[in-house]
Amino acid sequence: MPKLTMVQAINLALHQEMEKDESVLVMGQDIGKNGGVFRLTDGLQDKFGEDRAIDTPLAESAIIGSAIGMAINGLKPVAEIQFSGFSYLTLGQLEGNAARFRNRTLGKFTVPLVLRMPFGGGVRALEHHSESKETYYAHTAGVKTIIPSTPQTAYRLLLGAIRDPDPVVFMEPKHSYRAFKEEFEADGEAMELGKARIVQEGTDITVISWGAMLHRTEKVIEDVVDKHGVSVELIDLQSIAPMDAQTIADSVKKTGRAVIVQEAQKTLGPASEIISLINDNALMYLEAPVKRVTGYDIVMPYFARENNQIPSIERITDAIEETLAF
Amino acid sequence: MPSKVIARFDVSYLQILDENGKVDKGLEPKLPREKLLEMYRVMMRARRLDERLLKMQRQGRVGTLPVSVGQEASSGAAAMAMAEEDWFVGSYREVAGRIAMGEEMHKPMLIYGGFEEGNYNEDIPRLLPLAVILGSQIPHAVGIAYASKLRGEKSAVLAFNGDGAASEGDWHEALNFASVWKSPSVFVVQNNHWAISTPLSKQMNSETIAQRGIAYGMPCLQVDGNDALAVYKATKEALDRARKGEGPTLIEALTYRMLMHTTADDPKKYRSDEEAEEWKKRDPITRFKIYLQGKKLWNDKKEAELEEEIKQEIDAAVKYYENFKEFKLDQPFDHQFGTEVASLVEQRAEYNKYAR
Ligand SMILES: Cc1ncc(C[n+]2csc(CCOP(=O)(O)OP(=O)(O)O)c2C)c(N)n1
Ligand SMILES: [Mg+2]
Prior knowledge:
The structure holds 2 protein chains of 2 kinds. Chain A is an alpha/beta fold. Chain A folds into 2 domains: 3-183, Rossmann fold (3-Layer(aba) Sandwich), CATH 3.40.50.970; 197-325, 3-Layer(aba) Sandwich (Rossmann fold). Helices cover 37% and strands 18% of the residues of chain A. In chain A, the strands form 2 sheets. Chain A has a 7-stranded mixed sheet with strand order 2-1-3-4-6-5-10, sandwiched between helices. In chain A, helix 2 (44-48) links the parallel strand 1 and strand 2. The longest helix of chain A is centred in the C-terminal third of the chain and has 16 residues, at 213-228. Chain A starts with 5 loop residues before the first helix and ends with a helix. Chain B folds into 2 domains: 12-325, Rossmann fold, CATH 3.40.50; 330-356, no CATH class. In chain B, 44% of the residues lie in helices and 10% in strands. Chain B has a 6-stranded parallel sheet with strand order 1-7-8-4-3-2, sandwiched between helices. Chain B has a two-stranded antiparallel ribbon with strand order 5-6. Classes of the chains: A alpha/beta, B alpha/beta. The structure holds thiamine diphosphate and magnesium ion.
């Protein structure tokens, strides 16, 4: 298998799953002929036709609303929202209906849909094209929120999301779309949703991140390991909701120290929940206060200043070193 | 119980200056020569500014941006129909309209260079910033108009959006509000036939966008959006009606997006070059120039002078942008709230420790 980017990996997962399962379809703005503004859906319309790769009119609420109807009636829609900054127009339907149909009807009607959207900063884009608002979705009971970080995990998690019987918000870190390629297995194996992934095992400190921040954090860890000769355990959270309390607790019990790196703004971000879980499950094992490196509680600045909002190498390094030295 | 027709509607189309620059004398608005010359100037300044912005983008001096090439009449001439006290509520493809409002050319450079500082003009209080969330600005236009009306002001709101945005719920909801409230607002839809890669045929199954005005109970018409005179006349009449308390109007301006959606887009992927070539013949600026020449208001010498003047104006804007001095790193913390918030004071300190 050749090396693939995340864009290619997601595209491949969609091709394979649409081939395998006739009830799967993709829909969204410019996803057909244009293959999506980031080309994630390239070739799907050619292969599966306009009825299964639908260029929709421009209305996010109707995209998710009609996807909910399709899902109720036996299809598995994978709907793309062009940028997460426009996904707030889906929140009414997501919270009010997608999240509730199963519970409302005691399992009689279910909504197996996937809402894909690129998110995150660092691509010198216009307003609304750079934020990280996973908390909105994670805070919606009845919806799963997934963030992949690599081509291989994006492929497996997307397959997992499509096969999941419930609504899944699948947030793709656009900064990682083409940032690197990796050796890849396209074996059609899905990854179970709700699990964090241990990227590298270690014993001195646990570092938890997700999405594009995971890669910046990995770089920092390489340097910290070189400089201090420590052993770092790196966890890719992957599943924002539900959150994998077990993996986090097991790791922190082993290392006694933890740092969380989150691109989203600080207050009530996933890091807040991770710290609560550590508090619930591993507090007595801690040898240092848990630190979080996050965005500030400000509106995402336009790109001239956005680098100061996204956790920098320097901030992440300081947090890890301070936690190690505590 | 008989089955009978209970309502019938017409949608009219207005063109005054055809694509060859030939004017319909019966419909021609009687505008003073200064106004006509200013109209040409606005469209030319917008065209040249767009061309320069494109160049700057390719050189990496600004980020991704949309240009409005080909749509100079549909926003520019509309804005020129406004009265001093009217509001302008746009989206992002109204370069000419904003120039007509008096926006300085370094403002879009700042925005597309990543600076919020490009979003307002001290001296143009009734010009709202770009609205990137499609259709989201249209309800604002209705609310602004309502507030003016409540205060008994004689002002109207001119709002813009594209053919794609006219599919958004916000847009439809706003038109209904406007009509129910008889709000003094005028909605110009720049129908440029494309929403990124989505053609009209996939965007809607209605013959016109204009006819949606009928559904909401407001006057509506379609105009040749590349005909500055038609756009001007339709907008002027609608704004006058709005200010007189006669409620909103929907104007569909038929035009064409001559270039890419934004610099991140490649139209070759979804549309033919021939289509754009066809529309080139209907260029709003070319036909207006022929019209001015026919009236003996324009000649090559004046054209050369105007080009030189515009070049200098753009050069000065680029210079301003390149030397942008008010680049304050922690500006984001200055304007989160109108009152002090303790957590942000703390966070600003951390931000400043690392900012660069
Ligand atoms: C709510 C929302 N959804 C999606 C987008 C992404 N987007 C930006 S422009 C555009 C197409 C808009 O087409 P149209 O309204 O016809 O305006 P035009 O660009 O042609 O001027 C899309 C889909 C957005 N900005 N806002
Ligand atoms: Mg359009």
